[in-house]
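Researcher: First entry.
Model:
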Amino acid sequence: MIESLLKNSKVDRVKVAVVAGQTTVESDIIDLQDCDSVLGIVALGDVTDTAVLTLKAFTGDESDLSDGAYEDVTVAFTADASSADNKLMMLDVVKPGKRYCRFDLLRATANAVVDGIFAMSYNYRLKPVTQPSDVVGSDINVN
């Protein structure tokens, strides 16, 4: 049987672009009901030399994450003059045991532009998965 990411996962844009800064950027909260895992993808823009970027996942059982806590794993990167420009950072949260998740990008030391944050939830118990309204067009090519 041929598997398709489009029918077995859901992709949401959980944060729009954010101008250069050194503040924490929080994504929208992702509901993981009926799935076991979520991949957070941060699209970076222009990142200034010495910028320290740390991507974390914040999970909890309350829909507003009032009971939330950071997962143990983080992704950290210190940029030089061009090493992070227009690149990606990714953090995979597999079976967090919590229903809700948010991705936080901590920006420190120097400015960093965020082009957006995306969440790909997967390992759904019910398939096919319907894409959210963020996706305005999609199709599958099987040969």
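Researcher: Second entry.
Model:
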Amino acid sequence: QVILASGDGLSKNSPYHVISRHEEESIIGSLGVEVIKRSYVTVGIEYFMLKNRYLGSRGLFFDIERMWIKAPQDRKKPEKKFEFNPTLNPKSKRYIKPPVF
């Protein structure tokens, strides 16, 4: 119901806002419409052409812009840097100080 309240889906100015393909498919299934073709209007707006009219419109618009945003937990952590010989590098945690005579 939150998605259905986000817009009417009948124009690119008031699309349904979704964050996954599963949500798109759920809305299409719940409305009981049959999709013929899927196309992109812009990078963030997707259009679904319908077999039969829905509320006088030939298609539905979805705002998919949030699908492209990565959540912080999805970002890859940087791998450890390669050190040729960490025991000889004074900035390394594994540095071994030379003996003093």
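Model: Note on the second entry: The chain has a mean pLDDT of 83.
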